[in-house]
Fold this protein.
Amino acid sequence: MKNFNDLADYSALEIEDLISLARRLDEKPEPKALEGKVLSLLFLNPSLRTLSSFQAAMVRLGGGTFVISPEMSIHGLESRSGIVMDGAAAEHIYEAIPVIASYGDAIGIRAAAKVENLQSELLDKDFNELTSLVDKPYINMESAINHPCQNLADWKTLNDLDIPSNGKFVLSWSWHPNALSLSVPSSTLQMAAMRGMDVTILRPEGFELPEGIMDRARKAAFLSGGSIQETDDRTEAMEGARVIYVNSWSSINNYGKKANEDKFKHELRDWCVDNAWFDKAADDCRFMHCLPVRRGVTVMDEVLDGPRSVVIAESRNRMLAQMAVLHRLL
Amino acid sequence: MKNFNDLADYSALEIEDLISLARRLDEKPEPKALEGKVLSLLFLNPSLRTLSSFQAAMVRLGGGTFVISPEMSIHGLESRSGIVMDGAAAEHIYEAIPVIASYGDAIGIRAAAKVENLQSELLDKDFNELTSLVDKPYINMESAINHPCQNLADWKTLNDLDIPSNGKFVLSWSWHPNALSLSVPSSTLQMAAMRGMDVTILRPEGFELPEGIMDRARKAAFLSGGSIQETDDRTEAMEGARVIYVNSWSSINNYGKKANEDKFKHELRDWCVDNAWFDKAADDCRFMHCLPVRRGVTVMDEVLDGPRSVVIAESRNRMLAQMAVLHRLL
Amino acid sequence: MKNFNDLADYSALEIEDLISLARRLDEKPEPKALEGKVLSLLFLNPSLRTLSSFQAAMVRLGGGTFVISPEMSIHGLESRSGIVMDGAAAEHIYEAIPVIASYGDAIGIRAAAKVENLQSELLDKDFNELTSLVDKPYINMESAINHPCQNLADWKTLNDLDIPSNGKFVLSWSWHPNALSLSVPSSTLQMAAMRGMDVTILRPEGFELPEGIMDRARKAAFLSGGSIQETDDRTEAMEGARVIYVNSWSSINNYGKKANEDKFKHELRDWCVDNAWFDKAADDCRFMHCLPVRRGVTVMDEVLDGPRSVVIAESRNRMLAQMAVLHRLL
């Protein structure tokens, strides 16, 4: 393994192998595996799970980390090309990234979508520019369009729960006050398709995922024996569902236009998962969410606090999945 | 040991045993004891000693930590029940705490008193709600009413200095611009009572500690052969004192009413320990304070910088005491 | 080695020995060398390289760190003597520094120049006051007038690049919007002089370094067989140069008077290293800078991104040089 950027870079077999390793490291700790090894962590956006779980993962393997975020560095970081830096920013990413990378054996980078320019973000241009400055193994800790650590953790969670690989997986849009990026829905769709699941994307009209994302997922589903459907009918979607994976994302047509988006989704506040919605599925259906989640907005307490919610298990699997990735990378 | 929440949960014998372990770990380091182990650290209030000493403690035992504080997490943390989260906070403690705990082998939590609601804070309701979300061993890094790591460090400091277990221990109120919580005075009183000391609470009228706190301490004193007195007379209090332990706390009657409190203590600025006050005790009397301390406000430089001040030794004992607790917990 | 405060405290032989150790630790890691050891890190100014490289260095040697900066501690730190602390600051450095030091086996302190009082800063008064509070080995992570970790890293970089010890070293002033301190130019001059290089200080009139700094460097050059010249002529300076080491610093006459300084250097914006300037030297001349550097202001992209720029190597050598220092100190 050279980098860990996109789950789609691996075969289902390779992924299952990583998950086995994650499980083994959970059961049989290896506190000397990465002795004296350093993971550089660069956060261009705030984080709780990613920040914590990577630090914990390295300690468990006997190594360590350091964290850089713009608030901590010297007066913020400039990222524009060809710029005359006579403003506040005292350092350019062109130096900062190689320097940070040079202190580690690998680097994790979080640079989430700005939700401004759909075409650029679908191509992950910003993230690719950052990683082009790195000559070490890197880990995508969430970019505009990818979140492979979350995907690997979710796959493991599905395995842990014995959700059949051909079970029905509902990827559902939910209401959210902000216009969120496509990284989780896109990469989760791909994950479920690669795992062979019967995926139903449940979303109001106007919240279709980009065609390129859909195409890639359809190909993955074809290869894995899975399938991909779309609907805006909650009853239909929930029928036979083994998992409802909830997230919010910006509509493509209003991408980067917050005022339009706000207006467009104004009537959709009932896209908040409550028991009436969740109970349309059978009792063995699980509620998944990558967190953070807004209570009373995206999901009601009754669902999130219920026995079928597995969000904490998903989060813990972030650490274990990342330990497997780090073990392979280093 | 399951958790470390309140010094009163342990017998004097168990505490002496922890202190012996702390001393042994100081003299004979065990840098492999907690290899690959992770302590999660959650700070809902700022910290210097606690933050530093827990990180240092884990490194010395071969493990590691990660730190989460609201400023670093995603847009702050919500803590109200049944809330519709459409404001700034993107994450609820109901998810954040279990997630943070899930990455560690134990978790330390600091959630100091808000100094708002006396009854609720005496019951440590907020802190108990937080720990109810944790299924790992936890350490109280200061709650509304407890500060057991400080208490254990102070007990060790008293032992290190050969202060007799039945020596006179003056717990004195001091002036402070803010209305401070009861955690240090209450738990320090209990510590001194459990150690068998002859405790004198020296405070202006109106700054009596709550009856429940006093009752508990009197029982502990009865069992240990110690005693508890109260006075507002500095000369009387200092006579024969082996230790003056200084702190400030809010008056019960004005608890949560800052303006009233300010008025009430307006005339008390002379409750600042200077040589004239300190010298009322014999030369072997020690000055203790948990830090941070305001110079010229709570204590004069002449006392704090004098040879009888042991505040730095107390602080160093924080690390050693915590190493013993961590060694036992993990 | 007791402390690491000033490169001038060591002989060239001792420095070469440290560099050999740095190289050995790079080639043959020693992840158990500092097992269970703690380096306290106190940053009174923001940092990227220093923060990252010290944390990484300790992990690579098997130990760990904790970081304290005023933003994280309780309401900032007071540093004035004899003060009545009834403002915002709740803690004085008189307690904070000894406490922080007490948790580590050594302490690194960054307290850069305020660029206010030249005489005081030349004597490093603030930094010396801080270290007078420490009873552990300390490392100067940049003070008003010293930056020994940078100097050691730069010396190693010169060695790595096979720059002859008597090669021509141009220390050049550059334009910068802020009035910067003398720590890097002063200590870099000393470093190059001690290494035996033929140093040319290239600066506009008015940007001479203080006489005391020059004297000390001349003595070092005399002992090492090097030399020191000064000029404001770029063509003359660059002729035969093996290195141009660029930095900005405040003029002595306007030290602490920002408005005067701004006016004084108003016409000097062309002191930005571009190809026309850089190409006055031969093709084997290297561009050095301690970073952070302002693109388009101090140096043009064409130089910084060119093959003769070695700024990233310099930065990586920070970590390696510091590993050697830590190995010796602990």
